[in-house]
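P.,

For your records, the input lines for the assembly:
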Amino acid sequence: MSTVIIVGGSYAGLAAALELRQRLPAGDTVRVVSASETFIFHPSLIWVTQGEREPADISFPIRPVLEEAGVEFICAQLETIHPEAKTVSLNPQQSLSFDKLLIATGGEWDWDAVPGLWPKPRGHTVSILSPWDAIAARTEWQALLADSGPVVIGAVLNAGLYGAAYEFALNLDIALRKAGVRDQAPITFVTPEPFLGHLGHGGLGNSRQIIEEAFARQKIPAITEAQIERVEAEAVVLAGRRQRLPSKFTMLVPPFKGIKPVRQVPDLGDAQGRIPVDDYYRSLNYPDIFASGVAIQVKPQVSTLLPCDVLITGTVSAEMGRVAATNIAADLGHGAAVRKPASALKSFYVLDSGSHGLFMSLGSQSWLNLQLNVPGPWGHWAKVIAEKYQMWQIQSGRY
Ligand SMILES: Cc1cc2nc3c(=O)[nH]c(=O)nc-3n(C[C@H](O)[C@H](O)[C@H](O)COP(=O)(O)OP(=O)(O)OC[C@H]3O[C@@H](n4cnc5c(N)ncnc54)[C@H](O)[C@@H]3O)c2cc1C
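Structure tokens returned:
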């Protein structure tokens, strides 16, 4: 009888667990360990700070989903991986052994990448990248409405989640207009990308044109190939050009790094703790360890003047989870292995500008490359419908 441990209960971990349960015989154990009892639909975090969504609207408990499917669930923090002994140590204290381990833990935000980048009070920014940060940012949002001033939104070197920064800037513009204070709150967007819509991929379809048009329409100037030197209490300072952008409200996406238990295992992760894998999602150095989702290393296929990470979407993370699950099952003698590099995976992204929408369906085959500009409030509602539909899909194991 075999035991597979999956660490992480989000896009990659849930998809992998449900796939594995179907592929392995009933006597084999599929066990998910996750630090959180809850699945969060990250794309809707861009709306939490302005009060358009509450975290409860965009989350659901994962235990019933997993247990109903016959997957064991342990809510605990992974502390240490022992690849040779094939065990993991958890907090609360527990040691579990595995035949195969799948790491689907996403990553940690590297808030130390730039001085002052930490969310307030430790640094000078606000963050929308987790539910608790997005809620905490409401105080700063209310302060901005009461006493408006300049706003800086964007991403620092090596960041990858450009989509969230674009959407937050565009939605903030609409919210400031609705509050009647947009004239007193000029927004500047800063990014290391060579152009808007680059996304670390060199652009996806006509993403450049659509995103540049949205920023022009909503009067948000962008500084591309920008390197942020530091964030101050009321300014963002750019390196090289020594430009100082005044800012009362700053939201910047940091780079990702792998979680500490991965960084502690020699040669499991790269310098940032992201896990290099082969096209089967197997660690290059530990054959019984697989990884999926944001936890893995994906090297940019295009070069840029300043380092840009690659956007890894929720759809792609879930697909990686399923492919890894198929290959783990194959290793254990059930079914055939599949080879699917990250660049071959289908991705789906709905970008909401508050006033327009952009569907991006992306993949290696040309017929998957579809971009659709949706004008007017339909764009916003398309994203809301995508939220409801995708949450239903994930909860019912169809994602
Ligand atoms: C603000 C925001 C907006 C986004 N917008 C979009 C969008 O519009 N469309 C889109 O496709 N994608 C979007 N994304 C990206 C998407 O959320 C990611 O691609 C996806 O979350 C990656 O899934 P994952 O399973 O790899 O990791 P994650 O979702 O990060 O999940 C990691 C899991 O591991 C668990 N974990 C972490 N560390 C440990 C530990 N030490 N022990 C135990 N468990 C641990 C966590 O609790 C969690 O369950 C957005 C992300 C953010 C933050």
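Two observations worth noting. The mean pLDDT is 91. The two ends are 28 Å apart (CA to CA).

Regards
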